[in-house]
Amino acid sequence: MTERTQFAWEGARPDLTGKVVVVIGGSGGVGEGVVRTLVTDGATVVATGRDLSRLADLVANISTVGGGGRLVTEVLDAAGDGLDDEAARLAERYGPFDGVVISVASWGEQGRKPALSLTDAEWDDLIAGNLTSVFRLFRAFVPHTKKSGIVLQLNGMSADLAFPGGAGIALSAAATKSLTRTIAAELGSRGPRVYQVVLGVVRTRARRAAGIDDLGWLDGEEIGAHIAGLVAATSPLVGIALQYHVEKATGPVAGSVRF
Ligand SMILES: NC(=O)c1ccc[n+]([C@@H]2O[C@H](COP(=O)([O-])OP(=O)(O)OC[C@H]3O[C@@H](n4cnc5c(N)ncnc54)[C@H](OP(=O)(O)O)[C@@H]3O)[C@@H](O)[C@H]2O)c1
After folding, report:
1. Cα 67 to Cα 71: distance, rounded to the nearest angstrom
2. Which of 121, 145, 198, 202 is most buried, judged by most C-beta within 10 A?
3. pLDDT tens digits, residue range 195-215?
4. Is the pLDDT reported for residue 3 higher than 80?
5. How far is the CA of 26 from the centre of ligand 1 (A)?
6. Cα separation of 214 and 191, whole Å?
7. Residues near 83 by Cβ (< 8 Å), separated by ≥ 6?
8. Region 182-186: what's the mean pLDDT?
9. In testing the pocket of ligand 1, which one of 30, 131, 137 has its CB within 8 Å of the most ligand atoms?
10. Domains of the chain and CATH, by start
């Protein structure tokens, strides 16, 4: 069995044996590390993406992971007409879920571009890919998540900061941060617990392949370790809806909003 890495900020690592966690965007750069940790910790992980070859790469990249967990992959499009039916089908097959992680991002085709040069079509595309998608995923998956479970959205620092050249990304980040906090407040103690985790820069496989790396950046695996603690309800941040995981050394910290 693979040894469970202990991170500087962590207490004892939880055992997720018997837990089912869906990682939407599990084939993405951040998703890969999250999936690796959750499988290592014993969970059954349902990792989704739209692109079959990216899902196959995920399976290949974590094939050496030990632990008692297992990985299954499923194609899922947050923009699809049948999203609610797909969520119900996944729940029937694997659920109800102990955790749902929303880790989707869409950079669009326009590249870095000043806000006022965006066309209507580019604007609509960015909002659809980064904001409407997150709303639809919460709506589809919350009903299939256990009352004791979690639904968590991973977000970026542009939720709070100006992002020149990335207006559509930044405003969607700010809006999904708002959305998540509202859903958390609306569900309250009825559950599932809803979290917004704002991340700093992450060391992804794609960045490393492009020669862009910094040992001070977060690893997807430590983001996964934080999520594991929330699923197991062993994290000291279990009652905090808004969280920041920006500094490697500090680990995750509370934002200002509590349930
Ligand atoms: N990378 C970073 O440094 C960083 C830093 C801070 C925060 N974050 C946050 O981490 C999250 C994930 O980012 P990432 O870097 O991992 O992005 P990524 O590598 O582009 O991966 C995005 C994932 O989302 C999936 N996806 C995109 N649109 C979708 C849709 N409409 N329906 C279903 N799945 C969809 C993609 O699947 P396909 O490829 O198959 O379409 C892929 O699995 C985002 O919320 C981002 O804000 C990332």
Report:
1. 11
2. 145
3. 999 999 999 999 999 999 999
4. no
5. 8
6. 38
7. 76, 77, 136, 137, 140
8. 97
9. 30
10. 20-254 (3.40.50.720)
